[in-house]
Amino acid sequence: TILSKNQKNLGTKPGTLQRGFNSIFAAASVKAAKAYYVEFARQQSELAADKRLKIATIFTYAPNSDDYSDGLLPEEDFDTGALELPDREFLETAIGDYNQMFGSSFDTSADSFGAYYEDVSEKMRNRQLDMLLVVNMFLTGFDAKTLNTLWVDKHMHHHGLLQAYSRTNRILNSVKAYGNIVSFRNLEKETSEAIALFGNKEAEGITVLKPFGVYFDAYLEKLDQLSRWEPGELIIGEAEQDLFIKTFGELLRLRNILSAFDEFEEKDPLSPRDLQDYQSEYIELYRQRRAESEGERKRINDDLTFEIELIKQVEVNVDYILMLVEKYRDQHAEQSRQEVREDIRRAVKSSPTFQNKLDLIERFVDSVSATSGEIDEEWKAFLTDQKAIELAGIVKEENLKQPETERFINAMFRRGHLETSGSDIDQILPRGSLFATGADSRIERKKRVIEKLKTFFDRFHTLG
Known about the structure:
By secondary structure, this protein is mainly α. It has 19 helices and five strands. It has helices at 2-9, 30-44, 85-102, 110-125, 158-165, 188-198, 204-207, 212-226, 238-258, 264-267, 272-295, 308-312, 318-330, 334-349, 358-367, 375-398, 402-415, 424-427, 442-460; strands at residues 22-27, 55-58, 131-134, 147-153, 180-183. The protein has a five-stranded parallel β-sheet with strand order 2-3-1-4-5. The chain is globular, with a radius of gyration of 27 Å. The chain starts with a helix and ends with a helix.
């Protein structure tokens, strides 16, 4: 279905983090847009609230919307007065859904509809919306780096086709190196003609992705090169490590392209377990090289690029880890328990976000038993205790003011980031001698405290 495909193209898979992409769906007519909106709502009603995509729609009157003989899409029109009464009533209801979703109060009146358009634009750019259903609006001129997919169920050609396709071409990072066009109509001929008419005829291979087989063959060749190292093998020697970093990075880039093709998932010969083992070694080498670079102990090879963003795109999340912990608790055979525990370790070690939290997660696994209650509640209680213990350790080591430190760090968790540039950090420091020098000086102590609190915050803030 379109919704399940949309989850994939947004970069979400079961047990993985959502990496911040969204999409536009271009329908052929107001009638078609209404039908899609109703069907999407029906399918979403069967899902838990936290699993539903945030979908909105926006349209105005669009005569003969599926046939533009000049190849140009109509200029955006904010006049909802030309809509037939049933269409305007439907749009009013859809905007009401939007208002309920975001706590706003827009409607189809002349004074409010323009503000609705601007708010939708902002929420698309901020990735607060997962998908926007349109007829003609937003297909010309709108740019958002987070927009990576255009769904097309309308006839387009020439300049209008390229205008619509170009909505997805803002490069964001190594994850979004291109846009995805998913067409439910055969527009191959129109696409080739548009590229030839408005661009270099030789550029089509650059503009449009090559067939699946071209990338898959390159991927298999890269896998063959990767087989030089066993999954989970400790790679010794700088030259050998450099070669592994380069090879695995190239493999990750190919996987990123191939993920746009439906057939890749069933044909991929690399098992999830082996991929996690390779990722664990890759992340460990990244950690080592970054530490060396920060310490300036040795020159880092400038030709090496770590594709950490590509790993973060599909890394596991807390819910997935807790699901494995629950599975571990429910196993009775010792061998089965050890296998699940190894799955937990492998999942955590292959994640840039969770790798430095392995000791916490393993202690939590040790703490659960057959008589434990709900795993989610156990995890929250465990985190609360661990945060208190580790923060108390920092307070004691640095002789900080305990109530002020607790208030400061709790405020940072609420904000979602650690702010150390203001005066708040000074309020938690102990009084010190004006004549203290070296490690005891106020400046050095402040630097040390900030570093410890940063490590503490990074350790806990992604764990729920």
